[in-house]
Amino acid sequence: MEYLNIILWSLGIGVCLCNFYIYYNRxxxxxxxxxxxxxxxxxxxxxxxxxxxxxQNDLFLKNSLKSKTSVLYGVITRCENGFYIPxxxxxxxxxxxxxxxxxxxxxxxxxxxxxxxxxxxxxIMPYLVELxxxxx
Length: 136
What we know:
- The chain is 62% helix and 4% strand.
- The chain has helices at 2-38, 59-66, 90-97, 104-135; strands at 77-79, 82-84.
- The two termini are 18 Å apart.
């Protein structure tokens, strides 16, 4: 039963960490994508660097743009002129990095709900396991 509790808490904490990571991607890294959308940078001719939109001091963005495995590269493309969003990825960028439905309060509420659910499961699971043993 001890192992089941460890697994449940690990899953719950993992999902909470994912909530915060998604929020980070959407808010912190998404600033640049939203600026590209605002500037209508949908081709190489309209490409801009973070400096041009006032994000030259954002260390998180700089580190993310250096890494070729960044989630940003799922929606933006790099060229000599800077970065742009290809026309075919425009809808995906708006859905992934739009501010609709993303607030820190929502992250806290959903994380609290997950932790509460895990807590209830750790209380209920021993009874369910005992019930299953008695049935079989």
